[in-house]
Specification:
This protein is mainly beta. It has helices at about 55-60, 110-115, 130-135, and strands spanning about 1-10, 15-20, 20-30, 40-45, 50-55, 70-80, 80-90, 90-100, 115-120, 125-130. The radius of gyration is 15 Å and the shape is globular. The termini are far apart.
């Protein structure tokens, strides 16, 4: 049985997101910063009379920070009944693929925490990313 996935790029890597989590894909010109939030929250964004929390996918993976400003692409996802905007580098397409398989490679801790398997698309393995793991952000560092 095949399932739908959204193909996007995060940290220079093509990844797949389960399409059932995706509400839409948008371009944002501005994000309103919020003081004293955890580093993976880039700020807030208003979309169709809703206020969305903007998640910096790079920071959520512990791989740096996305420069905020200019035109940015975001994938709007629903997690635990709340909408979030996940910043991504680009969005390609929605594709059908067989059910995910376990990862076939050893992943770095950052990617392993967000990965839920792999899919194959046009002969290329793509990491399946759990949007909820990006929303949760990196594990807290003990002081």
């Amino acid at each position: 049985m095949e399932t739908l996935f959204l193909i996007a790029s995060i940290a220079g890597q093509r990844v797949a997101l389960p399409a059932y989590h995706v509400e839409s894909v948008v371009e944002m010109e501005s994000v309103t910063p919020v003081p004293l939030v955890v580093p993976h929250i880039a700020g807030l964004f208003a979309l169709r009379s809703r206020v969305l929390t903007v998640i910096d996918s790079l920071a959520a993976l512990g791989l740096g920070r996305t420069p905020i400003g200019g035109l940015m692409q975001a994938v709007i996802v629903g997690c635990d009944g709340h909408p979030y905007a996940l910043l991504v580098e680009s969005v390609e397409d929605v594709v059908r693929a067989p059910r995910p398989q376990p990862p076939c490679a050893v992943l770095s801790p950052e990617w392993a925490r967000a990965a839920r398997g792999m899919i194959e698309h046009e002969g290329e393995p793509l990491l399946l990313i759990d949007p909820a793991a990006l929303v949760a952000g990196p594990p807290a560092i003990a002081a």
